[in-house]
Amino acid sequence: MLTEFEMVVRLALSALFGGLVGLERERHSQPAGLRTHTILAIGATLAMIVSLQIAAQSRTGGFLGDPARLAAQVVSGVGFLGAGAIIRFGSNIKGLTTATSLWTVAIIGLAVGAGYFFAATFTAAVLMFTLTIMDKWEKRVIVHTSTHTITIRAEDGPGVVDCVHQQLTALDVEVKSQSFTKNIQSNEIVLKVVVKIRDKANEHELITRLSTVPGCKDIGME
Q1: CATH code where residue 202 lies
Q2: Is the pLDDT of residue 182 over 70?
C-alpha cells in the first residue's frame, strides 16, 4: 500500500513532467497546452495509483484486482484528446505532434504512478528534446512543403492559363493537378490548381504574382 506522502510525490512529479511538455506546446500555440497536458498527466498517475491500491487490497481482502485494467483504459481513452488536437486545413494536417505528445504524457503519468521514476524521467527528457532541440534542427535541415488548392477566376482570354503556369514556374512551384471550367454567359473561366509550395514565404508572393494574370478578378487559396 502506498502512503499519502508517496501519492503526493508521484502526483507532483507527474504534474511537473506534464507541465513542461504542455508549456512547450503552449509556446507553439497548440490547442492542447499547459493545462491539458498537466491535467492528463496527473489523471493518468491517479488512475495507476488507484489500480495499485486496488491490487494491494485484493491480496488481503480475498478478491482479485487487475492493476493493468484501469491503466489500459487510460491509454485507449486518451485517443479522443488526440483527435481533438488534430486539425485539417485543406490538404495540410496540423496537430499530429501534439496528439502524440498527449499520448506519451499519459504513459509517463502511468509510469510515475506505478513508481517507475527513472523510466518516466528519461522519457520526459527525450520527449522535451524531441519537441525543442529536434524541432529547431528539423527546420534547418529538412525542407518542408505544403499543399494548397488555388482558385483563380478571370475573364476568358488568350494566354490566361499559360500566364498562370509561367508564374508558377517562376517560383518553382510544383503543380500536382489542375482543372478549369468556363462560363459562356459571363465569359469567365475558373481555374483550380493543386500546388506544392516549399517555402511558406512564397505563398504571399505567389498570390501577388497570380493577381497580375490578365483579366484576373479574384484568387483564393486553401
Answers
A1: 3.30.70.260
A2: yes
